[in-house]
């Protein structure tokens, strides 16, 4: 075991794994996190805690991780290189590991332009690819990038994100390969709505044998309404929602759209479950954590396995 | 008189105001008819820039204007000139001339074509 | 070249509030090419300032001078005979030129008349775009001649990120994704294999992050 995290164990035992995400609050109130944690608990193998997502300032990811850990959920810390140079990254890695966080997702981070502080200075000292490499070398070699020895190596199951729907398509699999070579143990994908394109991507990845080297967790987000679908398609860079998907939910009367969105999400998970090369799902129920049980249970993925 | 309004630049136009002009009328050939291809188009852009400067420094943007005429349109020229002079008279002396103590050259113009 | 944009006239007028007699110094270098600090711009700005001040009831005397370059000591020297007769110098050269005047004429205030921008190119008349951030360790040979530090909004060394969509960067509709450009160019050059290698962490010490930089060429001193 590289990290001994629950997520790593579940995957190693060959189970189809489930992760979800939990966005920390825009304030210092820990109750918000605890409330979300109650919806997550029992439904996942690990739960991501986002790191100032879309550059909107929120409670720190590490604090969020510790709060959900207290509630008995295995945390997965997200860390972006937008806000930290390599000094801060190393230090936060050591701190997170010391507090028992065993899973990490290494990210670039959205540009600060999207958030509350578009005038902020960004960092981008190293990029997400190099960050993966940094975590791996600290974990496996027990050294700082400077070569000096660590007083206790951090233990992480290392993840990265991929967006199969961003451009140019032809570079997406080579980029995944690079992330695997840099040291990624698992990947979580951007939300999948365009199944056709995703299958194309997966086929290319499988041709390179990448599904055997890295655990691929397919990302899904239930749509709350046709309006939300249209908004995401238009406003979120690299989000690919085909018209058929939008039409399907738009065909329902307004008050039934949420229900339909959940039904479609469950169908999608069931399809993904049967696909070779998919090791699990990552359910991003954005500000809709209360539906996690229904979705994950509906897809036949409950109860979650206990692996010793 | 200049051979082409394309020779006019912003500093020349501003100088006219420094020299006491209350208004500046720039008369160029019809657009598309420039002997030097695009002299009058360039002049238009420069006049626009000076218009913006005059606005910002509170001299008043309406004290500059560009007209396009062909050489054969004498009566039109006279009509434009009268109209512009009338407008400048309405505006009164420029703040510069007021500051210089009222030696008003009402509607003194610098003809540039 | 080094590019820049004029400072708003209101801001310059405010800076000049304490003075009645100044030098307005232009530069024949980069700022002339990008039309923000050359001889012509000196004339226009001087007239504008004189008009504004006179209209406001307080004249200002402006001596207009353009130097060959404000970033070379021998040209900067040419200003010396005038400086002591004036209360301040307003420079419309780049930030380097402005500072060089300030350090050569230590007891005369030197004020910036432009906002210095970036190292860029003229894409067409009236449009300039950034190309280099002077990182001190050029990698253009690995990236198809397109700079990842400058042209990628996140200075990624292994782009494009998930925000790249149809050639456009996530930061804005009129920003091209630098990494799309790099990939396209690598393909055209038949060098896509350059993409597949993990690049070492960039040493930013050769950039601004190492502190103010200096180039010392013993062979030339
Ligand atoms: S790699 Fe560095 S030196 Fe080369 S173009 Fe980019 S910023 Fe300039
Ligand atoms: S979209 Fe392209 S240019 Fe913009 S940050 Fe991502 S990789 Fe860089």
How would you sum up this structure in a few lines?
The complex is a heterotrimer of chains A (308), B (113) and C (221). By secondary structure, chain B is an alpha/beta fold.
Number of domains of chain C: 2
Portion of residues in helices of chain C?
25-40%
What oligomeric state do the depicted chains represent? heterotrimer
Q: Which H/E pattern describes the elements of chain C?
A: EHEHHEHHEHEEEHH
Q: What distance separates the N and C termini of chain C?
A: 25 Å
Might you state the CATH topology name of the largest domain in chain C? Rossmann fold
What is the count of helical runs of chain B? Answer: 4
Order of helices and strands of chain B: HEHEHHE
Order of neighbouring strands in the sheet with most strands of chain C: 3-2-4-5
What share of the residues of chain C does DSSP label as strand, in percent?
A: 15-25%
Query: Whole-number average pLDDT of chain B?
Result: 88
Q: Give the rounded overall mean pLDDT of chain C.
A: 96
Helices and strands in order, then pairings?
The complex is a heterotrimer of chains A (308), B (113) and C (221).
Chain A: H1 6-12, E1 17-22, H2 30-40, E2 46-49, H3 61-70, E3 75-80, H4 86-98, E4 103-107, H5 128-141, E5 157-162, H6 172-182, E6 186-191, H7 195-207, H8 210-213, E7 215-220, H9 226-235, H10 243-250, H11 257-273, E8 280-283, H12 292-298
Helix pairs in contact in A: 5-6, 6-7, 9-10, 11-12
Chain B: H1 10-18, E1 23-28, H2 39-56, E2 64-68, H3 74-91, H4 95-99, E3 109-111
Parallel strand pairs in B: 1-2, 1-3
Chain C: E1 2-6, H1 9-15, E2 21-27, H2 30-33, H3 39-55, E3 61-67, H4 73-76, H5 80-83, E4 88-91, H6 95-104, E5 110-112, E6 114-124, E7 127-132, H7 148-151, H8 178-188
Parallel strand pairs in C: 2-3, 2-4, 4-5
Antiparallel strand pairs in C: 1-6, 6-7
């Amino acid at each position: 075991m590289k990290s001994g995290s629950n997520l790593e164990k579940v995957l190693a035992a060959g189970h189809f794994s489930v992760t979800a995400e939990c966005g920390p609050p825009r304030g210092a109130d820990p109750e918000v996190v605890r409330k979300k944690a109650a919806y997550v608990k029992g439904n996942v193998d690990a739960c991501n805690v986002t790191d100032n997502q879309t550059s909107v300032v929120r409670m720190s990811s590490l604090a969020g991780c510790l709060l959900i850990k207290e509630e008995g959920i295995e945390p997965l810390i997200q860390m972006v290189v937008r806000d930290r140079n390599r000094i801060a990254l190393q230090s936060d890695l050591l701190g997170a590991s010391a507090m028992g966080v065993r899973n990490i997702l290494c990210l670039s981070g959205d540009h600060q332009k999207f958030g509350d502080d578009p005038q902020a200075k960004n960092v981008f000292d190293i990029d997400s690819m190099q960050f993966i490499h940094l975590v791996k070398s600290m974990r496996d070699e027990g050294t700082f990038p400077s070569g000096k020895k660590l007083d206790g190596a951090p233990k992480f199951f290392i993840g990265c994100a991929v967006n199969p729907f961003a451009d140019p398509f032809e570079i997406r699999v080579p980029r995944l390969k690079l992330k695997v070579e840099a040291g990624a143990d698992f990947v979580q994908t951007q939300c999948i709505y365009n199944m056709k394109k995703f299958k194309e991507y997966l086929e290319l990845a499988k041709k390179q044998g990448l599904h055997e080297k890295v655990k691929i967790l397919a990302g899904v987000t239930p749509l709350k309404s046709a309006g939300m679908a249209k908004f995401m398609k238009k406003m979120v860079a690299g989000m690919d929602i085909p018209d058929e998907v939008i039409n399907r939910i738009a065909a329902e009367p307004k008050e039934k759209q949420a229900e339909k969105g959940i039904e479609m999400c469950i169908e999608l998970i069931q399809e993904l479950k049967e696909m070779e090369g998919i090791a699990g799902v990552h359910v991003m129920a954005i500000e809709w954590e209360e539906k996690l049980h229904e979705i994950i249970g509906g897809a036949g993925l409950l109860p979650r396995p206990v692996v010793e | 008189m200049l051979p082409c309004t394309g020779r006019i630049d912003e500093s020349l136009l501003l100088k006219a105001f420094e020299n006491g002009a209350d208004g500046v009328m720039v008369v160029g050939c019809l657009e598309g008819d420039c002997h030097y291809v695009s002299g009058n188009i360039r002049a238009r852009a420069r006049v626009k820039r000076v218009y913006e400067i005059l606005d910002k420094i509170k001299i008043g943007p309406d004290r500059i204007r560009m007209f396009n005429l062909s050489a054969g349109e004498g009566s039109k020229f006279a009509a434009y000139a009268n109209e512009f002079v009338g407008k400048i008279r309405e505006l009164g002396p420029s703040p510069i001339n007021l500051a210089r103590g009222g030696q008003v050259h009402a509607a003194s113009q610098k003809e540039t074509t | 070249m080094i590019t820049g944009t004029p400072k708003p006239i209101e801001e310059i007028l405010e800076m000049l509030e304490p003075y009645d007699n100044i030098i307005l110094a232009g530069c024949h270098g980069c700022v002339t090419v990008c039309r923000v600090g050359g001889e012509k711009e000196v004339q226009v700005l001087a007239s504008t300032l004189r008009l504004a001040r006179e209209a406001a009831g307080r004249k200002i005397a402006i001596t207009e001078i353009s130097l060959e370059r404000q970033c070379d000591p021998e040209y900067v020297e040419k200003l010396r005979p005038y400086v002591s007769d004036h209360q301040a110098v307003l420079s419309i050269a780049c930030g380097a030129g402005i500072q060089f005047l300030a350090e050569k004429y230590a007891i005369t205030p030197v004020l910036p008349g432009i906002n210095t921008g970036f190292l860029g190119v003229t894409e067409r008349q009236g449009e300039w775009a950034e190309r280099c951030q002077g990182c001190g360790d050029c990698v253009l040979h690995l990236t198809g001649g397109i700079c990842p530090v400058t042209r990628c909004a996140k200075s990624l060394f292994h782009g494009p990120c998930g925000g790249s969509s149809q050639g456009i960067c996530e930061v804005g509709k009129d920003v091209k994704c630098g990494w799309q450009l790099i990939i396209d160019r690598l393909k055209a050059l038949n060098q896509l294999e350059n993409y597949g290698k993990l690049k070492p962490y960039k040493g930013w010490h050769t950039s601004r992050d190492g502190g103010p930089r200096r180039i010392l060429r013993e062979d030339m001193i």
